[in-house]
Amino acid sequence: MPASLNKSILRQEKVFAAGRFSVFNISATTGDVLEKLLQSDQIVFIENGSRKPKEELQVGNLDLSVNKINLVHRKYPAWNGEGLVVSVKENKPDTTDIDFTGRFLSTNLSSQITSSHASIMSTMIAGGGNTWHLGKGAAWGSTISSSDFASLLPDPDVAYRQYNILTQNHSYGVGVESYYGADASLYDQSMLNNKKLLHVFSSGNSGLSAATTGTYSGLKGFANLTGSFKMAKNIITVGATDSFGIVETLSSKGPAHDGRIKPELVAFGEDGSSGSAALVSGTALLLQQAYLDLHDSLPVNALIKSVIINSADDVGKKEVDYANGFGSLNAENAMHTIFTGRFFSGNIVNGNTQEFSISIPAGIKKIKVTLAWNDLPALPNAAKAIVQDLDLELLNPLSGSIWKPWVLNSFPHPDSLQKPAERKRDSLNNIEQVTLDDPQEGLYRIRISGFNVIGSQEYFVSYQLDSANIFAWECPTANDFITADVSNTIRWHSTSSFAKGKLEYSVDGGSAWQSIQENMSLATGFARWNSPAVTSQALLRMTIGSVSYLSDTFTISSRTSTGVGFNCPDSFLLFWDKLPAVKDYRVYTLGTRYLDTIKVTSDSLMVFPKNLNPGFYYAVAPLIGNQEGMRSYSFDYSQQGVTCYIRSFLGSLVNNTAKLELFLGTLYGIKKIVFEKLSDGRFIALETVDKPNSLLQIFSDNRLKKGLNVYRVRLELADGKIIYSEPETVYYFSENRFIVYPNPVSQNQPVEILTNENILSTVILQVFDAYGRKIIQKKMNNFLEKISTSQLARGMYFFRFIVEGEKDTILKVIVL
Fold first, then answer.
1. Cross-strand partners of 777
2. Rounded-to-integer distance, Cα 542 and Cα 461, Å
3. Could you tell me if 536 and 626 are in contact, meaning their C-beta atoms sit under 8 angstroms apart?
4. What are the sequence ranges of the domains in the chain?
5. Three-class SS state of 598
6. 88/121 Cα distance (integer angstroms)
7. Could you tell me the CA-to-CA distances from 169 to 274, 276, 334 in Å, in that order?
8. Which residue among 116, 559, 589, 764 is least packed, with the fewest CB closer than 10 Å?
9. Would you list the DSSP string of 109-142?
10. Rounded Cα gap, residues 531 and 507, in angstroms
11. Which whole-number Å values give the CA distances from 609 to 239, 549, 659, 720, 749, in the listed order?
12. Smallest Cα–Cα separation from 46: which of 188, 228, 223, 231?
């Protein structure tokens, strides 16, 4: 901050230093801002510092098959993000959530505010699947950390390095802003300073709004990203689609303030773009781990960006548009690119050209090539953000044909912004993409040119070859679960020359097939299937022409239901419903990070000695053939409302009769149930049930005494143990409106007063001694009141109850 201005500033704090400028938080009067700060040639940009971040909408439905993350889990099981750290910048997730067990890294960056939104985002990125299978995130082995989004600026570089953070997820916004702010410039610098760190942002949920400033002001449905920081060039900004890859109406759209392509990607986020960003962040972690294992070093963030964008599925308008960016996340394609090494990198100077050869075999339906580089940050509020300008071209040396990248019309009018992309030189974006449909077989060249470069610029290129005439199942895989007797979504990928296929299923290993649809359109890529009400292994079959394609063998089942039978001091019992055609069940407990197998059993219940089973969370899964079916929810047995055999014991007064209801957790080991009543200081048996056959036992007692009737249940077990319930009291007034007990009462012992529930008015209690002197007056507000006798001498007292509009009630009470 210029020294000449310091005297006018109420407070200043340096919060970030970039290469060409520093960022300060200041407190100043409006007059000082207008008269002094704006007049200084040392001030580059001023922005309102009171902008408050808010979480984008929560995501309530997670389907990893939409973006092919389930295929990565199936084909590349060794890569789950283990050993890598992701930061979720917003409020703090619930660190006690069992899906984060043993994998949450506490840092000094974290917010003190816990939110469900942060928990959901963390689960989508890295949930361990301990609660249920839908709690398993994309990179389910990675370590989760939290960073407070109270500051909209990047965290300090030293923090990213100290905590080894490789991906940071940003699922929040501040309202529509269409300019390149200081925060955008700093995020661009952050990725330059931390070459392995990738920032991923949600585009926002303001897709129907319009910018109020800038080139695209007033254009409803365009340029409505929720935050100037999302205008950064080196980050990935992600919009939202539904479960069928169609961009959501409320998903914020581009272009960026200067016409650049935003968002760069879309992903599943049916309830908002928050979840879309989370899935991209999780996928990035998987790619980073795969690259590390294959190359013994971490990838540069621009390479991961190039791979993710290049591998996306083309959705919306052909090739690229301002709603879908370069397409919908395809995690399997991205992982295949890393695994096969279909990428390269280089450094280029101004005016230089570099070329790379790729061989395109016969039978390729499409080639896609994407160039990406980390651009230098522009100055805040720059009209055009690009600094280093590189160019990408694809060449066929034999034919002399040259294909340039796809470029959108950025003129600020709806008609122009909706025009299809054209091939031309790109002078706005630091991502360029060339595609070619049905390329001829041969050797092609990828050309990179330095059009306007300061010094030397590092760049990364990835490419993908899509084969023609293929069909592949995407969901269900052997790892996925189909729910019995409901509508399930099944998915495939097809480049077949045939338009339709015959879709069938089998539940007997392929001996017999049942039709789902005779003429299924292959182009849709999905179908809704009302699965049969069975518990079984199953197969899907798509027959195209004379060729049939079988899916993985998967399971069809309902979720296993569980319960707690008893929770005694030395042991507890868990039980579960038996499923048809299931012989064995796998019982789990929560380990240091994930669920660990305790035992495989054919029983439908299990007793756990507490000294050998210290954990609280358990789950059960059926074994269907050689596969595991849909597991139960994991549950804390100590929080299920069951004590030692007894779930509840309740007493109520019904028509001058005490109705006693006993609800047991289990009948396992119970020999006898005895209902007892307190009489003359001891419990006596009223009713005995030998060898009970129902968890619910009901007994009625019509021999009530005025006042308190106290009951309990005695359970006699087969091993000789006795278990008692807690006492349950039924108050019986008969014709009385008030009950005072005990009576007589010992001096200094409180006396309790019960008021008949039929009395609705306020009750005034007056206590008189034998001489008519009023000792106590009290308004009674509760059904049960306690009165101290400490101020009462031994003797007889009169308790007078006054109810407005009714005759007074007077009771004699003896104090001993």
1. 766
2. 36
3. no
4. 3-37, 63-340, 471-556, 564-636, 646-732, 738-815
5. strand
6. 8
7. 9, 10, 19
8. 116
9. T--S-B-HHHHHHHHHHH-BS-S-GGGB-TTTTS
10. 11
11. 51, 49, 35, 18, 43
12. 228
Q: Which of 212, 152, 149 is nearest to 23 (CA)?
A: 152
- Per CATH, 63-340 and 738-815 having the same topology is answered no
Say which CATH class 738-815 falls into: mainly beta
Find out whether 270 and 243 touch, Cβ atoms under 8 Å.
yes
Task: Outline where 403-455 has alpha helix (H).
Answer: 414-417
Q: Side chain identity at 22, as an amino acid letter?
A: S
DSSP labels, 473-488: EEES-TT-EEETTSEE
Instruction: Give the Cα separation of 555 and 577 in Å (integer).
Output: 18
d(CA 813, CA 811): 6
Cβ-defined contacts of 763-767 (< 8 Å, 24+):
763/801, 763/802, 763/803, 764/801, 764/802, 764/803, 765/799, 765/800, 765/801, 765/802, 766/799, 766/800, 766/802, 767/792, 767/797, 767/798, 767/799, 767/800
What class is the 471-556 domain?
mainly beta
564-636 has CATH 2.30.30.50 classification:
no
Residue type, 755: T
Contact 235, 262 (CB under 8 A): no
DSSP alpha helices (H): ranges in 152-300?
A: 157-162, 182-193, 273-295
pLDDT at residue 42 tops 80: no
Region at 680 (left for phi over 0; alpha for psi -120 to 50; beta for the rest): left
pLDDT in tens, 601-615: 999 999 999 999 999
Which tens digits make up the pLDDT trace of 754-786? 777 666 577 888 888 877 788 888 888 777 788
The CATH code for residues 63-340 is 3.40.50.200
- What is the domain class of 646-732 according to CATH? mainly beta
Q: Poorest-confidence range of 428-437, 567-576, 774-783?
A: 774-783
Check the CA dihedral 492-495-500-501 and report its sign.
negative
Structure tokens at 234: 């080196």
Q: Taking the CB of residue 394, how many other CB atoms lie within 10 A of it?
A: 22
Q: Please name which of 201, 330, 198 lies closest in space to residue 267, comparing C-alpha atoms.
A: 330
**Residues counted in the chain:** 816
Residues 6+ apart with CB under 8 A from 296: none
- In the β-sheet with 571-576, what is the strand arrangement from edge to edge? 562-567, 571-576, 605-609
- The pTM of the whole model exceeds 0.90: no
Residue 657, sorted as left (phi over 0), alpha (psi -120 to 50) or beta, turns out to be: beta
